[in-house]
């Protein structure tokens, strides 16, 4: 038997309500902040990600699903959402539209990783992008949106950690300081970190190998190297968050996994999901659009991992109730009443009442059993007598009360009771 590829997950009809709930919350909160949805392709030219995400990142170095299409072009399944949105923004000349540009996406993303709880090869993200605003208020707005989204799910044990990684000017001095600090330890560090040491030493701070983590603990902090502008920006972000009643801790170890970040970076973290604690990560990326097009457009955004959110929701007991079956099951005793049930179901559906009838030629008893098992609310039984009378015996499975209801009044009867 052919099985699902490693690191992928099916969402069965019995679980889909959890995803629909999560997605509805995302849309609701994004809408409250006047962000509109954007949809971009699942695959893009490989170059978009190597240039946009950055070729010193884990994503570009080892996690991308890249292949040649039949025309010999190198394409890549999107490993994240920002690069595609940035491309669309530039391609459609949206810098000339009303700014700030505010968009959200709910997407699947693909990374060739070692699968474990909260780490998949196909996973899903809810993300937001805000382009055109350089000020601290934009950072605070995006963080506030993320915070409101997590709170709307009822999560209480997710913590916000923020940091500033400065701009290219102050970071140069910091890179120098990091290199001086790490140089004597280079022999004890993992192979990846040795490459990072040359290309982008800040990335060492993001390493998940225990030995490297330990060494990184004593490393210099970017916060001590911020230039005056970056420091003022960070101070303002913090004070806006405080004013908005959004609790945070400053965590100098947060650098984020992508190359394009500058100034503010943040993560929402939870212990509840096990080892993969970051449920949402984001920050400012003022150089990304410039890197792709030449014109600088300041940008800030985040992406939340939806599988990790579901794990945390489960652990914090925040799952919504499972959805129920049809509002009304129409059971038929014999051929004519089954036919009538089929027609009545059509009519009820037209009135906005979800309906099912028997498609399996089952006995009335078996039909009742099915209605009960699938969580139907009402069962209306039709037989010879009911057809003659033009009325059905309607049972409310929640209260077990039964009543005779004229066919023509079925819809109103049900609507009155729900
Ligand atoms: P990590 O450090 O856990 O690898 P990351 O820095 O690579 O995360 P981002 O690229 O910032 O993650 O993606 C944003 C969010 O998407 C993460 O915080 C996480 O919740 C989720 N995410 C990232 N990679 C995966 C994956 N392979 N499986 C499931 N969720 C993921
Ligand atoms: Mg990663």
Topology record:
Layout (H helix, E strand, L loop, with lengths): L15 H17 L3 E2 L5 E3 H7 L5 H6 L1 E4 L5 E4 L4 H10 L9 E10 L11 E10 L4 H17 L6 E6 L3 H15 L8 H9 L10 H7 L11 H16 L5 E2 L11 E8 L8 E7 L3 H6 L5 E7 H10 L12 E5 L2 H16 L4 E3 L6 H10 L4 E5 L1 H6 L1 E6 L5 E5 L3 H8 L1
Parallel strand pairs: 1-5, 7-8, 12-13, 12-14
Antiparallel strand pairs: 2-4, 3-4, 5-6, 6-11, 7-9, 9-10, 10-11, 14-15, 15-16
Helix pairs in contact: 1-5, 5-9
The protein binds adenosine-5'-triphosphate and magnesium ion.
The site of adenosine-5'-triphosphate (ATP) has 18 residues, from β6, β10, β11 and α11.
Textual characterization of the structure:
α5 packs parallel to α9. The strands form three sheets. The chain has an eight-stranded mixed sheet. The chain contains 15 helices and 16 strands. It is of the alpha+beta class.
Question: Quick gist of this model?
Answer:
Helices cover 38% and strands 21% of the residues. The chain contains 15 helices and 16 strands.
What percent of residues are in strands?
15-25%
Q: Would you tell me the overall average pLDDT?
A: 94
Bound molecules: adenosine-5'-triphosphate, magnesium ion
> How many distinct helices?
15
Beta strand count: 16
Calculate Rg over CA atoms: 28 Å
Identify the overall geometry. Answer: elongated
Record the strand order, biggest sheet.
1-5-6-11-10-9-7-8
Helix content: 25-40%
Terminal CA distance reads 45 Å
Please identify the structural class as seen in this structure.
alpha+beta
Instruction: Give the biggest sheet.
Output: 8 strands, mixed
Brief descriptors of the model:
alpha+beta; eight-stranded mixed sheet; five-stranded mixed sheet; binds adenosine-5'-triphosphate; binds magnesium ion
